[in-house]
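Record 1 of the preview.
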Amino acid sequence: MNIDEAQLVPLRDVCDDAKILAEGQYTFVLLTGLRFRSGDATLTMNALLLPQEHEGYVTRLFVERIVPGKGANWKAYPFLGQTWHACSWKDVVKEQTLVEMLYGHLDAFV
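->
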């Protein structure tokens, strides 16, 4: 999958350091130092946005650690030399822009 660098511009309004990385058949957007709200807290962690199908999900968001008390059915995945975590979350569609996908996945942690 090819991701046009121009698609990263709106993502960089949310996370300054967004870059494209590939491994095997997957093309990720690495979001270094992503800040987001979870309950009453603001969390900061690295994340991988995958705008393509993975294990039956149309898109996925992988985070560097489990978000306590949020999401369901967490599972660990080895990508890019480290372990990432993703919860079961759907209804984020591939026709959305990358930033819309990200916000859709972050809804799991609200």
